[in-house]
Amino acid sequence: FHRFLESLLDGAASARLAELKIGTPCKAMAFEFIRSLWPDQMLVTTVLVERLRHRTFDLSFIGRDPDNNEIFKANFTAICVRAEVRESVAIPEPLREQLENYRMQCANGY
């Protein structure tokens, strides 16, 4: 999740989120393992932005081995909170824009 945010925000996720004065803890998460995942196994993970709401956003993850076999599927809902008081807040506009842009790029096959 944090590596995805780092690539999305062009930098260290914790620093960028601190600039926005938010945290993005997990509100909900589900995993389905289709095959065994071995220690040190190489994976390619695809991340999609499924839904953007006012305070939360949903991501889906698909992990595949080098032969393109699905290893796992996962869903993750993050909630934006003001870091200092742990109170939910709207997704900051810079983050919302990046999530929307990423979703559009994926929809267009990038």
Structural overview:
- By secondary structure, the chain is α+β, with helices and mostly antiparallel strands.
- It has three helices and seven strands; from the N terminus they run ααβββββββα.
- It has a four-stranded antiparallel β-sheet with strand order 2-5-4-3.
- The longest helix has 15 residues.
Features:
7 strands; alpha+beta; 38% strand; globular; 110 residues; 27% helix; three-stranded antiparallel sheet; 3 helices; four-stranded antiparallel sheet
Distance between the termini: 20 Å
Largest sheet: 4 strands, antiparallel
Q: What's the rounded overall pLDDT mean?
A: 91
| Helix content, binned percent | 25-40%
Shape: globular
Question: What structural class results from the helix and strand content?
Answer: alpha+beta
Could you give the order of strands across the largest sheet? 2-5-4-3
The succession of helices and strands, N to C, reads HHEEEEEEEH
Radius of gyration: 15 Å
Number of helices: 3
Number of strands: 7
Would you identify the regions where 5 or more consecutive residues have pLDDT less than 50?
A: none
The fraction of residues in strands falls at 35-45%
